[in-house]
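Worked Example 4.2. Consider the chain below.
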Amino acid sequence: MSYEDILYLPHHQSPKREHMSLRDRAAQFAPFAALTGYEDAIEETGRLTDEEILLDETAVDRINEQLQYLAAHMDEGIRVSVTYFRPDDRKSKGAYLTDIGVIKKIDQDRQTLLMESGVTIAMGQIRELEIV
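Applying the procedure from the previous section yields the following structure tokens:
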């Protein structure tokens, strides 16, 4: 079967309707999200969080001693590794994070550490503190 008779005919354009732009035509075939926010909700549900582990008195005392030592030697720029628990804003659990660097400031009034990286850590959330 040969289509030579219709292959090179001019493209038909309706005299009643305006020609659709390529942009508008492409929009017809764009993906459609029937449930807006559904993907975000699925991702949030699948995001894993950790249970907070509470320290015993011995571990808390050891961390407090290390903090006292570091406070007395702030001008020496001692590098530390601080592992702490950060509660999640959306879930009942949270995440364990580690920041390695120099403590810039120990705020006894607010019970926080300010690391040189800019991270603020609540002293009550510290789970491990090591001098590196």
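The helical segments are 4-7, 22-27, 38-46, 57-72. The beta strands are 79-87, 94-107, 112-115, 120-122, 126-131. Compare this with Example 4.1 before moving on.
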